[in-house]
Amino acid sequence: QVQLAESGGGLVQTGGSLRLSCATSGRTFSAYAMGWFRQAPGKERAFVAAISGSGGNTYYADSVQGRFTISRDNNRNTVWLEMNTLKPEDTAVYYCAAYLTSNYHSGYLPGYWGPGTLVTVSS
């Protein structure tokens, strides 16, 4: 069982930055690829970014490529999402997720989810 807890959400102006954190439980953090998803009001949950268990490979949705950076520290059981040049369309609840494998593939679904943290970007 893996428990996830996001933090760092809040209100920011267009063009601003936020850094989301996701702390996890468990002693085998590196065994899990990790991801970030988001759900905007009235929309389905969507993939944002993922990182392999070693941290050596990262993946991004086209909409955030070049603006967001996912990273992890396996010694601290934590994954981050650095978000820059934020836009109003980035407003959403952001969810941290753990995959049941150390390698990420777009066809995989996460096995564990955090409760989410709200990011609001004002125009």
Descriptive overview:
The strands form two sheets. Strands 2, 4, 5, 6, 9, 10 and 11 form a seven-stranded mixed beta sheet that branches. The chain has a four-stranded antiparallel beta sheet with strand order 1-3-8-7, with no helix packed on it. With 123 residues, the chain is an all-beta fold. β4 and β5 (46-51) form a beta hairpin. The mean pLDDT is 96. It has no helices and eleven strands. The chain is 0% helix and 46% strand.
Give the CA-CA distance, first to last residue. 40 Å
Computed CA radius of gyration, to the nearest angstrom? 13 Å
Largest sheet: 7 strands, mixed
Q: What string gives the helices and strands in order?
A: EEEEEEEEEEE
Low-confidence stretches at least 5 residues in length (pLDDT < 50)?
none
Structural class: mainly beta
Total beta strands:
11
Task: Estimate what percentage of residues fall within beta strands.
Answer: over 45%
Give the integer mean of the pLDDT values: 96
Shape: globular
Helix percent band: under 10%
Give the helix tally: 0
Question: Summary?
Answer:
With 123 residues, this protein is mainly beta. 0% of the residues lie in helices and 46% in strands.
Relevant terms:
four-stranded antiparallel β-sheet, globular, mainly beta, seven-stranded mixed β-sheet, 0% helix
Task: List the SSEs and their pairings.
Elements: E1 4-7, E2 10-13, E3 18-24, E4 34-39, E5 46-51, E6 58-60, E7 68-73, E8 78-83, E9 92-98, E10 112-113, E11 117-122
Parallel strand pairs: 2-11
Antiparallel strand pairs: 1-3, 3-8, 4-5, 4-9, 5-6, 7-8, 9-10, 9-11
